[in-house]
Amino acid sequence: MIVVIQRVSESSVKINGMIKSEIGEGMMILLGIEDADTHEDIDWLSRKIVNLRVFPDENGVMNRSVLDAGGDILLISQFTLHASTKKGNRPSYIKAAKPDFAIPMYGKMIAALEAELGKSIRTGEFGADMKVSLVNDGPVTIMIDSKNRV
Predict the structure, then answer these.
(1) What are the distances in angstroms from CA 50 to CA 5, 45, 58, 120, 127?
(2) CATH code for the part of the protein at 2-145
(3) Which residues of the chain are under the pLDDT cut of 70?
(4) Are 142 and 52 in contact (CB under 8 A)?
(5) CA-to-CA distance for 78 and 75, rounded, in angstroms?
(6) Active-site pick, 38, 80, 123, 141
(7) Which of 42, 72, 96, 138 is the most exposed place for a label (fewest CB within 10 A)?
């Protein structure tokens, strides 16, 4: 699994011109799922995300997690994170998981993040044409690949 995490002051996702989900302070996370992903990836990544210290403390130092800050999470599935651009100019998405595997894994990631955060998170809609808006706070943008833990 690959995630791109952006610390935001606000973020939303629209589908067909209607707001599906929105958050204030927190994290907007793009999630890429591949066939090699496991429940262990979900467990490790959800703990890492919720405890990642990217929010400022009283001294302005990034020393607080989304949990500490009381922030929200907006999770959006994005298969294009697994794009391969090695050959030619048209990306290949062969590493991205097909919907029959990715949809249940996306649901399990949602449940794991909610359990770690102790509250509901907001989401996009798997496979939908989504318009994502955000105000990146910092800017802070971090990419994590669960296959590169060492």
Answers:
(1) 11, 9, 19, 13, 25
(2) 3.50.80.10
(3) none
(4) yes
(5) 10
(6) 80
(7) 138
